[in-house]
């Protein structure tokens, strides 16, 4: 063995240590990115669930509004009928229903 071989082996060992360090850093970076992606996916899932809930509530509200409108029409017809029995009509006094 000549004198340059130990120096060469030391350099190879240092290079290998640096490569291992680089690989460890890359692994930690990948794990960090995966954690961020998991958090983003969880947030997206919560957002989607919230949107679905809002859509369901909008549907219920729309149905309630239709029912209220129909009830208002029925009430108007009843009032018109009662007023017509007395010789009056409520049609001119209740626009838009």
Brief account:
The chain is built from 1 helix and no strands. It has one helix at residues 4-85.
Q: How would you characterize the overall build of this protein?
A:
This protein is mostly helical and 97 residues long. The protein is 85% helix and 0% strand. It contains 1 helix and no strands. It has one helix spanning 4-85. The chain starts with a helix and ends in a 12-residue tail after the last helix. The model has no long low-confidence stretch (mean pLDDT 89).
Count of helices? 1
Beta strands, count: 0
The radius of gyration is 39 Å
- Give the helices and strands as they follow along the chain: H
Task: Give the key terms.
single chain; 97 residues; mainly alpha; 1 helix; 85% helix
What is the topological layout?
Elements: H1 4-85
